[in-house]
């Protein structure tokens, strides 16, 4: 039940939601009125479209506008409407992180796909993918486009409580568990090509890459001072350059935490292999490592993109 209207009269939000010929009022939970057009809402939201076609809104205002009571507060409704209103020059940026998450949840609830494509929403999803995913995921619904985007963006971050920190209150167990399972599956897919015994992902057509691996990574030069590592592959022995080998170990650990291609070309993973060496063979070997990491990055992204959410 609403409070006594004499004590808490609704206030109008004002421009740009104050048109005289508007045909419906959206009233926020904190009693802010937005004078808007049904046609615009219907175009942006299948939920409003059905609502307007099925029944009259719950109340009417003094000057006979229909009123739709919303559970979202005024600042959230404003950000939501500015995202779908044509020719609105005001910022669509939510003022607080809590509002930004509430806007994503409202856009999901009202099925407003365009909201997920504006810069403010994309930035929130990109920078806070775990919290955004939790706001957008429901175990009872199909995964929407925005939730998929958030899940994919989350792969660039470690899924650890320390990383979520004080934003833990914006998460929930169902969604975190779903995301955790996705991360594990992506890590398993990402680690496969980071192998010193199985390079079957490199096809015969990739001659540049084969050249890189077999003439630089798998070193055949002989120098008793060089630190080379023997790896048995089938009936043959490969002589891996240890600087490559240590890179592979760091790369495997990296995709265990962040299952994305960028993890293996990150300076923290590459740099320790770039040590001074007097041996020309080892020096040449390392010159090829960065290029190899980019091939590996592409292969990992290709594999991870196939993992079902
Ligand atoms: Zn050497």
C-alpha Rg (nearest Å): 28 Å
- Content of β-strand: 5-15%
The termini sit apart by: 41 Å
Question: Main beta sheet, described?
Answer: 5 strands, mixed
How would you spell out the order of helices and strands?
EEEHHEEHHHHHHHHEEHHHH
Count of helical regions: 14
**Outline type:** elongated
Structural class, by secondary structure, is alpha/beta
Number of strands: 7
Q: Into which percent range does the helicity of residues fall? A: 40-55%
* Mean of all residue-level pLDDT scores: 88
Ligands present = zinc ion
Poorly predicted tracts of residues:
none
Q: Looking across the biggest beta sheet, what order are the strands in?
A: 1-3-2-5-4
InterPro entries: BTB/POZ_dom (IPR000210), SKP1/BTB/POZ_sf (IPR011333)
Protein name: BTB domain-containing protein
Domain BTB: 22-85
Pfam families: BTB
Task: Describe how the helices and strands are arranged.
Layout: E1 11-12, E2 24-27, E3 32-36, H1 38-44, H2 46-54, E4 59-60, E5 66-69, H3 74-84, H4 97-109, H5 119-127, H6 129-136, H7 145-154, H8 161-164, H9 173-191, H10 207-217, E6 228-233, E7 236-241, H11 242-257, H12 267-270, H13 280-287, H14 289-305
Parallel strand pairs: 1-3, 2-5
Antiparallel strand pairs: 2-3, 4-5, 6-7
Helix pairs in contact: 1-2, 3-4, 4-6, 5-6, 6-7, 6-9, 9-11, 9-14, 10-13, 10-14
The chain binds zinc ion.
